[in-house]
Design goal:
alpha+beta; NADH Oxidase; four-stranded antiparallel β-sheet; 9 helices; 12% strand
């Protein structure tokens, strides 16, 4: 089953229970490939994903996640992480090289990145902590993975019910890498969670300033 972007967004629900049916490898690879086409500041791509499929490891993860059944029911669970080491000079050079190989990076822009990225993380004018920045960008990729998955008929369930320290210890996650969320992927059992509704645009969009109402 393939859905349009509009259909995928409208039909996506957080699956509360999964069947044991596996996700075909080609579908999973496509979800990953398209999911990480998400944007990130300076193209630093701070997201990292641990793909958990073995039953023993899913049981271990479930023990870190308040015994939630989606962890062991879903055929695939992603441990979605943000890597705070993306301001490392060697890493920045790797990102520059990616841009050069894609034909999107000239010397002027490369030098600008070498200067601007360290300053961003030194002064952090738009975020309180480096973890906040990496989580912000990781969730862009997580959201895109969910939409891509739904468009290919694969359901998901973003989860923040876990003990970070336990997950990091159990899955050998370095200190500089933060666990942002867990994302089971698979095929939901019916019935799906009922649509919970969304606020009207006029309640969440504002006109020019936060104090001015908008008419849409």
């Amino acid at each position: 089953m393939k859905l349009s972007v509009k259909e995928a967004i409208e039909q996506r629900r957080a699956a509360r229970s999964f069947s044991l049916d596996p996700i075909p490898e080609d579908i999973l690879a496509k979800i990953f490939r398209l999911g990480v086409l998400a944007p990130s500041g300076f193209n630093l791509q701070p997201w990292r994903f641990i793909v958990v499929r073995e039953e023993e490891n899913k049981q271990k993860l479930r023990a870190c996640a308040f015994d939630q059944r989606q962890i062991t029911e879903a055929p695939v669970v992603l441990i979605c992480c943000g890597d705070r080491r993306v301001n490392n000079p060697d890493y920045i050079e790797n990102v520059i090289q990616l841009g050069q190989e894609a034909g999107a990076m000239n010397d002027k822009y490369a030098n600008s990145m070498r200067s601007a990225i360290p300053q961003l993380f030194q002064h952090h004018p738009c975020f309180e902590s480096r973890e906040a920045w990496t989580n912000r960008h990781t969730m862009l990729a997580v959201a895109q993975i969910m939409i891509v998955a739904q468009s290919l008929g694969v359901d998901s369930c973003p989860m923040e019910g876990f003990v970070t320290a336990q997950v990091k210890e159990a899955f050998n996650i370095p200190p500089e890498v933060d666990v942002c969320c867990l994302l089971p992927l698979g095929y939901a059992k019916e019935p799906l969670k009922q649509y919970g509704g969304r606020f009207q645009n006029e309640k969440i969009f504002f006109n020019e300033t936060f104090q001015e109402d908008i008419v849409l």
